[in-house]
Amino acid sequence: MTIxxxxxxxxxxxxxxxxxxxxxxxxxxxTYRRQLLDAAVSHIGFVIRADGDGKKxxxxxxxxxx
Length: 66
Prior knowledge:
Shape: elongated
Largest sheet: 3 strands, antiparallel
Radius of gyration: 13 Å
Low-confidence stretches: none
Mean pLDDT: 94
Strand order of the largest sheet: 1-3-2
C-alpha cells in the first residue's frame, strides 16, 4: 500500500513537524487511516522531499511480512 501527500508554502527544509503533519493529515482521511492502522502492516518506509521553494511531497510505503 502507498500513501502520498503534498504541501505548499510549508518551508524550504523538511522538519520533524512536517512528518507529524503529514501523518496527522493521513489519519484524518478514513482510507489512509485504515491503511496506517491495519494490523497486518509490519513494515513502513517513509520519504519526504522538499524542492527548496516551500513545496514538500511525502510518501509512505506500508508492507506485510511474509
